[in-house]
TrEMBL record:
Cofactor: Mg(2+)
Domain spans labelled RNase III: 7-136
The family this protein is said to belong to: Belongs to the ribonuclease III family.
PANTHER family with a match to the protein in the record: RIBONUCLEASE 3, RIBONUCLEASE III
Annotated SUPFAM superfamilies: dsRNA-binding domain-like, RNase III domain-like
UniProt keyword annotation of Mitochondrion present: no
EC number: 3.1.26.3
Primary enzyme class: hydrolase
Protein name: Ribonuclease 3
Entries under InterPro entries matching the protein: dsRBD_dom (IPR014720), RNase_III (IPR011907), RNase_III_dom (IPR000999), RNase_III_sf (IPR036389)
Subunit structure: Homodimer.
Length: 228
């Protein structure tokens, strides 16, 4: 269960006090825990994650539009993609102490799910979905202004970071090559895509993301790391 210490931290550090504590608990509850503890009456975070994904994309898009007017549409899209990818959201969740608050079933706990980046991404999105339902978009923007927006302003998310383009340029230095991204798996709840990257029909890497584009970027990033 979400600790009193964490709730106090939300209040003192971020000025967040949930009117409906059940939403906060739900945001940190994995389906494995909800299934093992039906008596607790807590739903898992999946619907909140769905909502939080959209809330974060809108809030971050609006911030980039207002504060990076010198960037064109393509550059804004790339910067937003870098911010909302699995790596970025998982890093935010880790930094703000979210992993320790997640309610996990015994099997998932033993499997090391608490450190799984895709799970941390889900929880970060779910938390912001819960915050939106409890207090509205202004509260989400306030939280982001204390956590995510300063990192954007500091240049952590370079608009030029497009792993697919970088990979294509690297591979095609000596001429055309066949680069193919294939969806291996698509999960509906929560939304999760697994994409395989093949170069000249040879499998090079895989990537996961909450949509196809994000998964492709992760696969390209993994390929670049492997090649370099």
């Amino acid at each position: 269960m979400v600790s009193t210490k964490f709730i106090d931290q939300l209040s003192t550090k971020y000025k967040i006090n949930f009117d409906n504590p059940k939403l906060l608990e739900e945001a940190f509850t994995h389906s494995s825990y909800a299934n093992e503890h039906p008596e607790a009456g807590i739903r898992d975070y999946e619907k909140l994650e769905f909502l939080g994904d959209a809330v974060l994309e809108l809030a971050i898009s609006a911030y980039l539009y207002r504060n990076f007017s010198e960037l064109n549409e393509g550059e804004l899209t790339r910067m937003r993609s870098n911010i909302v990818d699995t790596e970025g959201f998982a890093e935010f969740a880790q930094k703000f102490g979210f992993p320790e608050q997640i309610n996990l079933g015994h099997g998932e706990e033993k499997a090391g799910a608490r450190a799984r980046k895709t799970l941390l991404e889900d929880v970060f999105e779910a938390f912001n979905g819960a915050l939106f339902l409890d207090q509205g978009m202004d509260a989400v923007k306030h939280f982001l202004s204390l956590t995510v927006f300063p990192l954007i302003d500091a240049g952590k998310f370079d608009a030029s970071r497009d792993y697919k383009t970088d990979l294509q340029e690297l591979l095609q230095q000596d001429g055309p090559v066949k680069i193919e991204y294939t969806v291996l798996q698509e999960e509906q709840t929560p939304s999760r895509f697994t994409v395989q990257l093949a170069v000249n029909d040879q499998v090079l890497s895989q990537g996961q993301g909450h949509n196809k584009k994000a998964a492709e970027q992760e696969a390209a990033k993994a390929a670049l790391t492997k090649l370099n």
